Amino acid sequence: MKEEVIISQGNRPLWQNILAALLYATVVVLVVFFFYEFEFSFKTDQVKREMHTLQLAAIALMLAFYYSVIQTYYFDFKNHRYKHEHAFLIFKKGKWKSLPALEYISVFKKDQHFYEVNLWYVGNKHFKIYQLSDEEEALKVGKKLAITLQIDLLDATVANDSKWIEL
What is the Rg, in whole angstroms, of the alpha carbon atoms belonging to the chain? Predict the structure, then answer.
């Protein structure tokens, strides 16, 4: 087994970067509009309109942040620890934790459009590593991770018909 394994979303696709930029611009416009139009009032209609502008800005900010953050898992097997890191521009958040005993990788169909690749560990707990829209690609990622980590792979892409994949 490798001493260190890094599993990362990598760079975001161009369309997500463009969407995030548009959403950030929307936030700026809405906040500027809020302060430009702000008028201290006890009138219900006025307060609702101002709050609506802030709510739209908050929703746009959450969506922009969603399309901007990159998640990375670091596994340090030599020192028996892992770190789940969230990166936004130059800011990174995550801390090293003790590594639990890893059991297996599973690939399952989350809903009509997505397949999840999860890394399971002791206590029936898991790390959600990837979410992909293509079943074949999800199984490829799961197989590569299982080989790298030297653990089993469970194909649960068909409900109630899970099967272990030979590596």
Answer: 21
